[in-house]
Request: fold
Amino acid sequence: MAGTGKFFVGGNWKCNGTKDSISTLVSDLNSANIESDVDVVVSPPYLYIDQVKSSLTDRIEISAQNCWVGKGGAYTGEISAEQLKDIGCKWVILGHSERRHVIGENDEFIGKKAAYALNQDIKVIACIGELLEERESGKTFDVCFKQLKAFADSVPSWENIVIAYEPVWAIGTGKVATPEQAQEVHSAVRDWLKKNVSAEVASSIRIIYGGSVNGSNCDELAKQEDIDGFLVGGASLKGPEFAKIVNSVT
Ligand SMILES: O=C(COP(=O)(O)O)NO
Reply:
C-alpha cells in the first residue's frame, strides 16, 4: 500500500496562500512533532509546490490538487502527471468534490485521470462523497459506490491509492459528519472493496475522512474503526492545528 504508515493525513490547501503565508505555515509544520505511524501529505496550489518542497521537512510529502487526464501538450491551463513527477511531487488529489461539482468532472474522467497518474508513478488520493440532497434521499451508498466503480474500472492497481470520503455537505461548512455517519460509510466502502476488488486491498487501504475536520472534532472521529486518517481543508492552513489533527489518528 501507498506509504508505510497505518494512518494517513492530508492537508488540502486549495486555492489559498501567498509566498509569505506559506512560508509561515511551512515553518510551523517543520517545528511540529509528528507521530511516526502516520503518513502526512500537504497539497499547496501548483504555484507554490516548489517553494514548499524546497523548505518543508521530508517527513511530509507533497501532493498536487489535480492533474491532466493524459500526456501533456496543447491543453492550456493544465498540469500533467509527468510534470508533477518532474518536480518531485509524489501525490495528487483526484475527484475532489470541488472538481466534480464546481468544474464538472465526471466519474469516468476522474477514473481515467487516476489511472494515468498512477501509471506515471504519482500516488492518488481518490475522493468520493455525496451531496446533501443525495444523502437526504438515501442515495449515499449508491453515489459513493458509483464513484468507487469508476476508479476500479480504470486504475491498474489499488496499491498507491488512499480513498478520501468527503461528504460534500460537510466540506467547508463547519457541519462535520458525526463519527457514526462517517464510520457507516467508511465501513461500507471497505465492504465494497472486499466484494469488488479483493479482501487484501479492503483490509490494507487507508480510508480517510474529510469535511470540516478540526482540532476539536478529530479525536472522536479518529476513534472509529474504519477511519484511517483525514483530508483536511481549512484547518490545514493553521500549522499547529493541523499537527494536532495529524497526531490524533495514532
Ligand atoms: O475539502 C476538504 C475538506 O475541507 P474542510 O476541512 O475545509 O471542510 N478536503 O479536501
Q: What stands out?
A: The pocket of phosphoglycolohydroxamic acid is lined by residues 12, 96, 166, 171-172, 210-213, 231-235 (CB under 6 Å). The first strand starts at residue 7 and ends at 12. The chain has a mean pLDDT of 96. The longest helix spans residues 179-196.
